[in-house]
Specification:
Blueprint lengths: L34 H20 L2 E5 L9 E5 L9 E3 H5 L3 H7 L1 H9 L6 H26 L25 H13 L3 H14 L4 H13 L3 H14 L4 H13 L3 H14 L4 H14 L2 H13 L6 H14 L1
Parallel strand pairs: 1-3
Antiparallel strand pairs: 1-2
Length: about 325
C-alpha cells in the first residue's frame, strides 16, 4: 500500500512574495536604541527652544549685573534676533549719535536698564570729556615745543611804551589799551582799542586786541567780528585766523574752525600746534583720514604727537571701519 505524500498546505497567514510565491522572512525584532539615539531628539528640541528664547532677550556684556555677574540678561521690546548680544563698552565708546545709528536696540536696552545715560546726558558727558582730553593733548604738544602756558594778555599785539607818541595817535591808544587789559580794566581797554581803530580804520592790531578782550569777558560774537576785521585788513594775519578758529571750535562750529586753521597753516606752515588743533576738530567730526593727515604732518616736522591722542584716533578709526 502506497502512502500518498500529502502536500503541505501553505499557511495562509504567512506572507509570500507576490512574484515567486516564496514566504517572506518575518520582521526582525527591533534592537533596543542606544542612549544617544534616545537623547538626540531631546537635545534637538532643547536647542530649538534655546534659539527661540534668544529672540526674546538681550545678553549685555561689559557690565556688572545686580547679582554681581559680569553680564546681564534683559527682555527685548519685541521678538527678533537683531543685537541679541550687546557690548556695553563698545557702545559707550562711541558718540551717542553714532551709537544710536549703529546699535539702536542696544542703546535702548542699556538706557532702559540704567547702564547708559540718556542721549543728551551721554553726549554732553562725552563731549566734555573729549574737550578736556583735547586741552591736555594740546598742552603736551606745546610743552614739547618748549612753550610755557601764557596769559591771554601775552597775546596782545603792540608796544606799551607810549612815551614820545602823540596822545591822539592810534598807536598811543593801542598802547594804553594793552596796559588797561593787563590790569584787568576791560572797559577801559575796549574803549582805547576802539579809539585806536577810529583813528586808523585799517589798524589790524587794534581790532585783534579788542577781540581778545571780548573773548576774556565772554562776548564771543563781537570777538569773531573783530578777528574777522583784522584778517580782512591784513590777509597774512595768521594769529587772527587762529583766534577766530579757536572760538568756532569751542562753539562746535567745526567747518568754520577747520577753514580758519587751514588758512593759518597756509600762511605759516610751521604752526605745528595748529595742525594738532585741526586734527582734533577733524577727529570730532569723524573725518579720521584728514585727522591722520595732520598727525603725519606734525611728525614730518620732527615732533611727537601725544600718545593719548594717537590711541584715541586709532580706536575711533577702527570703529568706523
Amino acid at each position: 500500500m502506497k502512502w500518498k505524500r500529502s502536500k503541505k498546505q501553505p499557511n495562509s497567514k504567512v506572507a509570500r512574495c507576490p512574484h515567486c510565491g516564496k514566504p517572506l522572512e518575518a520582521d526582525k525584532a527591533e534592537k533596543p536604541k542606544k542612549w544617544y539615539e534616545k537623547t538626540s531628539v531631546t537635545l534637538c528640541m532643547a536647542a530649538g527652544l534655546a534659539v527661540i528664547g534668544l529672540g526674546f532677550i538681550h545678553i549685555i556684556t561689559g557690565v556688572v549685573s545686580p547679582f554681581q555677574l559680569p553680564f546681564d540678561v534683559v527682555r527685548k521690546e519685541s521678538f527678533g534676533y537683531r543685537e541679541t548680544f550687546v557690548n556695553a563698552e563698545q557702545i559707550k565708546a562711541l558718540r551717542y549719535t553714532a551709537a544710536k545709528i549703529k546699535y539702536p536696540l542696544g542703546c535702548k536696552a542699556l538706557q532702559r536698564t540704567g547702564y547708559m545715560e540718556s542721549g543728551k546726558v551721554f553726549e554732553t558727558r562725552e563731549a566734555n570729556r573729549l574737550k578736556d582730553d583735547m586741552k591736555k593733548w594740546q598742552a603736551q604738544l606745546e610743552k614739547t615745543l618748549g612753550r610755557q602756558s601764557r596769559r591771554w594778555q601775552d597775546r596782545l599785539v603792540g608796544q606799551t611804551d607810549s612815551a614820545g607818541m602823540d596822545p591822539e595817535d592810534a598807536n598811543a591808544y593801542n598802547a594804553r589799551g594793552i596796559i588797561s587789559a593787563e590790569k584787568g580794566q576791560y572797559e577801559s581797554a575796549i574803549s582805547n582799542f576802539t579809539r585806536a581803530s577810529q583813528r586808523d580804520p585799517v589798524f589790524a592790531d587794534a581790532y585783534f586786541n579788542r577781540g581778545l578782550v571780548y573773548v576774556a569777558i565772554g562776548q564771543l560774537g563781537q570777538a569773531i567780528a573783530d578777528f574777522g576785521r583784522a584778517v580782512e585788513i591784513k590777509a597774512t594775519f595768521a594769529r587772527g585766523y587762529i583766534e577766530r578758529g579757536l572760538i568756532h571750535a569751542g562753539m562746535d562750529r567745526h567747518e568754520q574752525a577747520v577753514a580758519d586753521f587751514t588758512k593759518a597753516v597756509e600762511i605759516d606752515p610751521a604752526l605745528s600746534e595748529i595742525y594738532l588743533r585741526r586734527s582734533l576738530v577733524c577727529c570730532t567730526m569723524g573725518k579720521y583720514d584728514q585727522a591722520w593727515n595732520d598727525v603725519h604732518k606734525i611728525e614730518s616736522l620732527g615732533l611727537n604727537v601725544p600718545t593719548g591722542y594717537l590711541a584715541y584716533l586709532r580706536a575711533a578709526s577702527e570703529r568706523q571701519k
